[in-house]
Write a structure and sequence with these properties.
By secondary structure, this protein is mainly alpha-helical. Helix 1 packs antiparallel against helix 3. The longest helix is centred in the first third of the chain and has 28 residues. The chain is elongated and about 65 Å long.
Amino acid sequence: MKKIGILLLVVGVFLMGYAAVKFIKDRKKGSEEQVQDQVLPFPWLPTTGAVLIAGGIILMGSGRFRRVR
């Protein structure tokens, strides 16, 4: 479970980084008035990244509390 958690964490960090770079590039393209007039869709990429990061952290920590019989 720890390896899956690390993988989810890494993928989530990459998604969040890509979303941040994309946001900064889009913001530099147009002026504030153009950005505010557009109807923005739901931000799926950062939301997915945040969920993957949270899931990765939970999976990495879940192995610590198991008892060995």
